[in-house]
Amino acid sequence: MDPVIDHLQITVRDLATAVAFYDRLMPLLGFSPLERGSAEFPEHEFHVVEYKHPRLAFATTSPRPSLQHEKVHRRRPGSLHHLAFRVGSRAEVDRLHRELGEIGAIIVAEPREYPEYTPSGYYALFFKDHDGIKYEIVCHSERS
């Protein structure tokens, strides 16, 4: 078996706010706006908005109403710590850094090399969405 992830679903506090952000983020990460879909399951109090790509589907989902006001904490057991997207070059990391700022992403750490992660070539930036969900853009290559 090859370890391939088919899809991810991230629960957000306010789906409308999240969709406004992710509609701008996902095209930066290679997802086509034309491949966006949504579904609602009232019996489960569940609404999902999915961004499709041939390699991965990424979805934002509504919370249960009783949990809607809880804060996201990535260190809570069962929580997503962060999600990293790999790009092909340091220039792409730098370009995405500029574009993420333009769409209102919260930059946690600007692009830099992280020798503490690997001896050489780990170049990344970290950002969060409006709920505090943390993401990374990373390039694995030698210094250019």
Please give a structural write-up:
The chain has two domains: 7-67, 2,3-Dihydroxybiphenyl 1,2-Dioxygenase, domain 1, CATH 3.10.180.10; 83-140, 2,3-Dihydroxybiphenyl 1,2-Dioxygenase, domain 1, CATH 3.10.180.10. The chain is an alpha/beta fold. The protein is built from two helices and eight strands. Helix content is 19%, strand content 34%. The strands form two sheets. Strands 1-4-3-2 form a four-stranded mixed β-sheet, covered by helices on one side. It has a four-stranded mixed β-sheet with strand order 5-8-7-6, with helices on one face.
Quick synopsis:
By secondary structure, this protein is α/β, with parallel strands linked by helices. Helices cover 19% and strands 34% of the residues.
Defining key terms:
8 strands; 2 domains; 4-stranded mixed sheet; alpha/beta; 144 residues; 2,3-Dihydroxybiphenyl 1,2-Dioxygenase, domain 1
Oligomer: single chain
Biggest sheet layout: 4 strands, mixed
Number of domains: 2
* CATH domain fold name of the largest domain: 2,3-Dihydroxybiphenyl 1,2-Dioxygenase, domain 1
Q: What is the strand content?
A: 25-35%
Q: Can you count the helices?
A: 2
SSE sequence, one letter per element: EHEEEEHEEE
> What low-confidence regions span 5 or more consecutive residues with pLDDT below 50?
none
The structure class reads alpha/beta
What is the CATH homologous superfamily assignment of the largest domain? 2,3-Dihydroxybiphenyl 1,2-Dioxygenase, domain 1
CATH architecture of the largest domain: Roll
Query: Overall 3D geometry?
Result: globular
